[in-house]
Amino acid sequence: MYQLIATDLDGTLLSPDHTVSPYTAETLRQLENRGLRFAIATGRHYCDVRGIRDVLGIRAYLITSNGARVHDPDNHQIHAENIEPQLARELCQPEFSQGTSISLYLDQEWLIGAPYERMLTYHQDSGFAYTVADLPNYHGEDVAKVLYVAEHEHLLGLEDKLRDRYGDELYITFSALDCLEVMAPTVSKGHALTVVMGELGVPATACIAFGDNLNDLEMLETAGHPFLMGNANPKLVAQLPQVPQIGRNSEAGVAQHLRQLFGL
Predict the structure, then answer these.
(1) What is the average pLDDT across 145-153?
(2) Does the keyword Hydrolase feature in the UniProt annotation (predicted)?
(3) Active site residue 72
(4) Is 261 exposed, middle or buried (0-12, 13-18, 19+ CB in 10 A)?
(5) Are residues 115 and 191 in the same domain?
């Protein structure tokens, strides 16, 4: 019945310290040996997630930058969508970035406006690191995602400002309370998941998906068998009242649920 498992990382598959637990890795490897296919779907950068996939030890498709990039298990890019360069340039200006740590995700690079050591703690398994750049003067080409990191209240105001200015010209979502993410308007994890299902010839009815935050909404709506984490954002839970909740990421909830579902 089930053929494809799609999962978010932070707050979902990863432990609270943003690393892969051996229990989770072993669970996914056992399922791959049974013929299950995987898609890792995250707001993280492709180069970072590639390293996390290596730690997991599975041949997963990678949906990264919230769906702006999709790579197959052999690292071939099969889907890409960028923010319009003029819009990317505008998003980098102090009018929007003031009071935040701003980053740009490109194909192979992570550019940041100023050093921010705390951000590196999210990349322990991959070792992926940023390059400091003059973002207000960046040309705006090849930008998969703009990321603003700040206190949630500040980002709520920024979200309103961006929606008022750009409307449906951009896809704007939260991946965490302190992370506001901006992509091209047609980008989402849900759309990217349809790309992966098309590549594999897998119907939505054979797809399981796990998520915890607002950037997982479209993916959970796309999969035939969605599950919310016990630690999911209440705003996401309210939008998906019929979707069952499982354990928390601090309890390896995804791995535990998969073991029960497949009788491991």
Answers:
(1) 96
(2) yes
(3) no
(4) middle
(5) no
